[in-house]
Design a protein that fits this description.
The complex is a heterodimer of chains A (263) and B (291). Chain A is mainly alpha-helical. Chain A has a single domain (50-258), classed as MetI-like fold (Orthogonal Bundle), CATH 1.10.3720. Chain A is built from twelve helices and no strands. Chain A has helices at 3-31, 42-49, 51-84, 90-102, 105-115, 128-156, 160-169, 174-185, 187-203, 206-210, 216-226, 230-258. In chain A, α1 crosses α12 (230-258) and α11 packs antiparallel against α12. Chain A is globular and about 75 Å long. The model of chain B has no long low-confidence stretch (mean pLDDT 84). Chain B is mainly α. Chain B has 13 helices and no strands. The N and C termini of chain B lie far apart (49 Å). Chain B is 75% helix and 0% strand. The chains are: A mainly alpha (263), B mainly alpha (291). At the A-B interface, α1, α3, α4, α5 and α6 of A face α1, α3, α4, α5 and α8 of B.
């Protein structure tokens, strides 16, 4: 490896790393500027005390939890069933789970608004509960590619067929098998899918804004247009949550490698 | 008798039932809404078939918004490919220590998911009028970004630079395995035959990598084309790109014709789907050599 290639290699890498870290640093620095002349946490204090922040943030946390539950209920049985009974269907199911990455979210939500409006056969947007449910299903859809991949990878590491037969010979039904045999064995996979879902839902903007729900993403965008420093403090918090979730995924996958399989 | 035995028939129907929750969910919340848009793009207000909406895409500000969107997606995908390729190559070919690879890939996995409102604020705080880098350049070098370099964060280049934050890591994530698939034997064979490093790259490595590179470019293109939140938080409505215009259309029917909105959304699907098809086809081709 010549000296020149080494220098170029380092130069490109350092440029890339600066590209990642300077904006994060800039964001953090800016969020501390609320008081003239000195760095302070004023912007954070003001943001955390804002009742709107508390309301939108807890709404998004709640939606994230609902989304995770719906995601688990749909993805785990499906991935299990495909592995066990319909291996030939796997490419098709996988293709469908990847579609949300192809069709832009703004197009999907546009379809929701028109398809489920008050005069349609399923008027979800007509009521508050209905709109919330629609948003949760939409979030589940956005998280589907990640959730499915995580769970499917988790199922690959266990012997689904043998576990199922063993449980069946002990008299277990399908629900029992899923709840007490399959799910406990893919907990790490489900958890990484869940954390990723959480990270996606917390900051999501397009769906919540267009369905007009009071979520954290639209709130962040709205105060970005009105306040000087608060949006930057909020962005730091949002980044912190995303990082936290992804760090937890790393942690979970590391621990699951050490733990013995539960049978 | 052409009927299957009853036991087998029962088993078959049960097998299908197991997939039904998933199929119903995907139909209701992905396929049908998308079909509704696609069909609406070819209908008049009273429901008869027409191509007028597609033709009408060529009116008003719509063509220019597609053009700007395509240019931004193209620029951010091209630069993302270039820089990401450089970073991946530096790590894979040992220009920098090997241990950097694992943290770089982990970090790229995180950063490639960072599109959204917070990303827009990060770049505003850095390259905006009173941002960290803007002030640093002004105070230490007397360079005013907007005046001397013509750079404005609320513009074409501003958005491109912001998108690069998730485009570069995505490129690193996808191209690193491809670069690792280049066998040492190929390089050695080329060297034995007297090839220079440049010739090896031009005649062996790049042709093998070409499908992977072009495919990733298509994926990055689609990725930028569909990004909504970052653009809206960064520029408000000052930059006329497709997602922002569609957003305004959904909120308030600014085009004055709902079916024209459908056609616009349909155009978005066509662009992102075409890019993804290119990606998938080229990926299959790339995997012939890179296993």
């Amino acid at each position: 490896m010549s000296l020149l290639t080494r220098i170029i290699g380092w130069a490109v890498l350092i440029f890339g790393l600066l590209y990642f870290f300077v904006p994060l640093g800039g964001l953090f620095e800016f969020s501390l500027r609320a008081r003239r002349g000195v760095y302070s946490l004023d912007a954070y204090v003001r943001v955390l005390a804002d009742p709107q922040f508390q309301a939108t943030f807890s709404y998004s946390v709640f939606m994230a939890l609902v989304t995770i539950v719906i995601g688990i209920l749909i993805v785990v049985p499906t991935a299990f069933w495909v592995r066990l009974k319909m291996p030939w269907a796997r490419p098709y199911v996988e293709f469908m789970t990847l579609l949300p990455l192809v069709i832009p979210a703004i197009v999907i939500v546009f379809g929701y608004i028109r398809l489920y409006n008050t005069s349609s056969w399923l008027p979800l947007t007509g009521s508050l509960t209905g709109t919330n449910a629609l948003l949760a299903f939409g979030y589940t859809m956005l998280a589907l590619p990640y959730m499915y991949r995580a769970v499917d990878t988790g199922l690959r590491t266990i012997d689904v067929a043998t576990l199922t037969e063993a449980a069946q010979s002990l008299g277990a039904g399908w629900i029992t098998i899923l709840r007490r045999v399959i799910l406990p064995n893919v907990v790490p996979a489900v958890l990484s899918g869940a954390f990723l879902t959480f990270a996606i839902v917390i900051g999501e903007f397009t769906l919540a804004a267009l369905l007009d729900r009071p979520a954290f993403g639209p709130y962040l965008q709205r105060i970005g247009a009105n306040k000087a420093y608060e949006p930057f403090a909020l962005s730091v918090i949002a980044f912190g949550i995303t990082w936290g979730c992804l760090a937890l995924i790393q942690l979970v996958s590391r621990f699951s490698k050490m733990a013995p399989p539960r049978i | 008798m052409n009927q299957a035995p009853p036991a087998l028939r029962l088993r078959l129907s049960f097998t299908w039932l197991g997939l039904m929750p998933f199929v119903i969910f995907v139909l209701l919340f992905l396929i049908l809404p998308t079909m509704h848009i696609v069909i609406g793009a070819f209908q008049t207000r009273d429901g008869s078939f027409t191509l007028q909406n597609i033709i009408d895409l060529n009116t008003g500000t719509i063509p220019s918004s597609y053009w700007i969107s395509i240019k931004i997606s193209f620029a951010s995908a091209a630069l993302g490919c270039l820089i990401g390729f450089g970073m991946a190559a530096a790590v894979v070919f040992g220009a920098v220590p090997r241990w950097i690879k694992s943290p770089l890939l982990t970090f790229s996995g995180v950063a490639s998911n960072f599109a959204g409102v917070p990303l827009a604020f990060a770049f505003l705080a850095t390259f905006g009028p009173v941002g960290l880098v803007t002030l640093f350049l002004r105070q230490n070098f007397g360079i005013v970004l907007q005046r001397d370099l013509g750079f404005n964060i609320l513009s074409f280049w501003g958005l491109t630079v912001t998108y690069l934050f998730f485009q570069i890591p995505l490129m690193v994530l996808i191209i690193t395995p491809a670069l690792e698939g280049l066998r040492r034997e190929w390089r050695e064979a080329a060297e034995v035959l007297g090839a220079t490093a440049f010739q090896y790259w031009r005649m062996v490595a790049l042709p093998i990598l070409f499908p992977a590179l072009l495919g990733t470019f298509a994926l990055l293109f689609a990725n930028a084309f569909g990004a909504v939140a970052t653009a809206i938080a960064l520029t408000g409505s000052s930059l006329n790109i497709v997602p922002i215009q569609l957003y305004a259309q959904i909120r308030g029917d600014v085009l004055g014709n709902p079916n024209l909105g459908y056609a616009m959304a349909f155009g978005m699907i066509v662009v992102t789907a075409a890019s993804n098809v290119v990606y998938i086809l080229l990926r299959i081709r790339a995997e012939r050599w890179l296993k």
